[in-house]
Fold this sequence. Notes:
CATH topology of the largest domain: Alpha-D-Glucose-1,6-Bisphosphate, Chain A, domain 4
Structural class: alpha+beta
CATH class of the largest domain: Alpha Beta
Number of helices: 11
Mean pLDDT: 87
Strand order of the largest sheet: 1-8-7-6-5-4-3-2
Shape: elongated
Largest sheet: 8 strands, antiparallel
Amino acid sequence: MSQNKLSRIPTWLLWVVGGAVFGIILRIVFGELPRDLRGPMSLAFLVVTPLVIGALTVYGARQTQRSWRFVLFAPWLTVLLMFLGCALALLEGSICIALLAPLFLACSSIGGLVMEVALRTSGHSQSQLRAIAVLPFLMIAVEGKVPLQDRQFEIRRSLHVNAAPETVWKEILSARNIQENELPLSLTHLIGVPKPLEGINVKTSDGEVRYSRWDRGVNFTAKVISRKDNESITWRYTFNESSFPEGSMDEHVEIGGQYFDLGDTTFNLIRLPENKTLLEVVAHYRVTTSINFYAAPAAAILGQDFLHMLLSLYKSRSETAEQRHVAQQLRAGTPCFARRPLTQALGSSNGIALYAHKTNCY
């Protein structure tokens, strides 16, 4: 690029690019730090770094007329360029970027606001404000001496299923050949979390074991620790080095890792009138990060979303199986279910109602 073309580029825009490059460099440097310093999962990187690059963005525009809108949102451009660079350099995957984007954008705006206040109060002696760039390095040196705190959480979700508990129970214990079109649109999958392909319970010499398989080669097991047929089942997960093949998930958000873990899952089946079921799932998980204030609610949102996806899958399969079962009984000439209208079990379409009339099932 010629000197003339370079001179026509606004100075603040050069600082945007420079701030993004600085953020990428910090990601590389922090990624090489010893494990006990937490590197990219440190407060220094996750909070202080976006604060700094937001502040540098506004500092680069100190010679221009700045609106408060610019102060708050120009740092977002720097953050987005940083994320783009990290993605292209394969430093971060889609899951981490999606999870960190709200935090980075908010912190960068705060950094820009702090720098704007500093510029307006410092008069003409502003050059020393660039020293804020060393803040992430100072923070990482101090932060490593503070131990991380484990936090345990519970999430639960439920929905009504138009099928008997016995039918729902079978679908939970043997969820084979899960197709993509059976799964509702979910946030977890939009950001890149692998989708489930199979979940099967098997009786072994060591007890009942749940074998789960997701796409991208993800696989893990769970030991059944409590079971009451057609009413409740609980299993506790086990993850090992082969559970998440390289590239299947971002290493910093792998389940069973240093920062996140899934403990157990319970399915409760509550029998309702008219051969229906209230299906509830309860999950326990651990969060251990420097930013539990942010990571905990983020994990809860994703967990609720994932549980809804599972419940929707079991609801759809159970209701289809119930319809098939009732239809088979009618073809075999077996008695109707407790003399209730067939349309309560199969729906109320004209075709089904006509079939009920022809078979005298009321």
